[in-house]
Amino acid sequence: MSRVILITGPARSGKSEWAEYLAIESGKPVIYIATATENFRDQEWQQRIQKHKERRPEDWVTLNIPVKLTAALTDAKPNTCILVDSLGTWVANFIGQDDLSWETTLGELLEAIPLVEADLLFVAEETGWGVIPAYPMGRTFRDRLSALIRQLGSVCETVYLVTGGHVLNLSVLGFPLPPAKS
C-alpha cells in the first residue's frame, strides 16, 4: 500500500527539508520531481535551486517536470518514493490556462494519485495567510493553489504543516473538512 503525504507551510519554513527527511526514512529509492525551471539570468533563483540540489543524497534520481506531473506519477514504479517539490511552482506553470482547462488539469492529477503504487510526498506552499493579491493573476494563483491543497489534503494519509521551525501533524491534531461545495 502506498502512502500519500502532503507537507505544507509558508516560504522558507523547512517544508522541503521535512519532505526530504520523510523520503529518506521511507527506505525506498527516491525519485525527486522538481517542478521549477532553471533561469540562468536570475542568479538568486539559481542559488535557491542549487541549495535544494546540494541537500539531496547522490543516489536520488532527479526529474525536472514543470508541467507533465500527472504522467510522471502514473509512470512511477511500485516500491519507490516520489517527492514532488513543489506544487506551488507546478500551479504557477499553468497560470495562463483558462479556468476550465485548469479544472481538467487538476482533475486529472487528483484522479491519478490513488492509482499510483509508489509513496508520494507533495510539498506545497501556503499562500492564503496574508494580504489578498492586488492583481487578478495573483488571486488566480492563490485560489488555485489553495484549492489544490485542500482537495489533496482530503485524500492524503498524512498532512503536515511546517511553520516556525516546527512540524505539526495535522492528521493527528485535527480532522478533515467535508468536501468543498462547488
UniProtKB/TrEMBL annotation:
<keyword id="KW-0547">Nucleotide-binding</keyword>
<keyword id="KW-0808">Transferase</keyword>
<dbReference type="GO" id="GO:0009236">
    <property type="term" value="P:cobalamin biosynthetic process"/>
</dbReference>
<comment type="function">
    <text>Catalyzes ATP-dependent phosphorylation of adenosylcobinamide and addition of GMP to adenosylcobinamide phosphate.</text>
</comment>
<dbReference type="Pfam" id="PF02283">
    <property type="entry name" value="CobU"/>
</dbReference>
<keyword id="KW-0342">GTP-binding</keyword>
<dbReference type="GO" id="GO:0005525">
    <property type="term" value="F:GTP binding"/>
</dbReference>
<dbReference type="InterPro" id="IPR003203">
    <property type="entry name" value="CobU/CobP"/>
</dbReference>
<dbReference type="GO" id="GO:0005524">
    <property type="term" value="F:ATP binding"/>
</dbReference>
<dbReference type="GO" id="GO:0008820">
    <property type="term" value="F:cobinamide phosphate guanylyltransferase activity"/>
</dbReference>
<feature type="binding site">
    <location>
        <begin position="53"/>
        <end position="56"/>
    </location>
    <ligand>
        <name>GTP</name>
    </ligand>
</feature>
<feature type="binding site">
    <location>
        <begin position="9"/>
        <end position="16"/>
    </location>
    <ligand>
        <name>GTP</name>
    </ligand>
</feature>
<comment type="pathway">
    <text>Cofactor biosynthesis; adenosylcobalamin biosynthesis; adenosylcobalamin from cob(II)yrinate a,c-diamide: step 5/7.</text>
</comment>
<keyword id="KW-0418">Kinase</keyword>
<comment type="similarity">
    <text>Belongs to the CobU/CobP family.</text>
</comment>
<feature type="binding site">
    <location>
        <begin position="34"/>
        <end position="36"/>
    </location>
    <ligand>
        <name>GTP</name>
    </ligand>
</feature>
<feature type="binding site">
    <location>
        <position position="85"/>
    </location>
    <ligand>
        <name>GTP</name>
    </ligand>
</feature>
<comment type="pathway">
    <text>Cofactor biosynthesis; adenosylcobalamin biosynthesis; adenosylcobalamin from cob(II)yrinate a,c-diamide: step 6/7.</text>
</comment>
<dbReference type="GO" id="GO:0043752">
    <property type="term" value="F:adenosylcobinamide kinase activity"/>
</dbReference>
<keyword id="KW-0067">ATP-binding</keyword>
<keyword id="KW-0169">Cobalamin biosynthesis</keyword>
<protein>
    <recommendedName>
        <fullName>Adenosylcobinamide kinase</fullName>
        <ecNumber>2.7.1.156</ecNumber>
        <ecNumber>2.7.7.62</ecNumber>
    </recommendedName>
</protein>
<feature type="active site" description="GMP-histidine intermediate">
    <location>
        <position position="52"/>
    </location>
</feature>
<dbReference type="InterPro" id="IPR027417">
    <property type="entry name" value="P-loop_NTPase"/>
</dbReference>
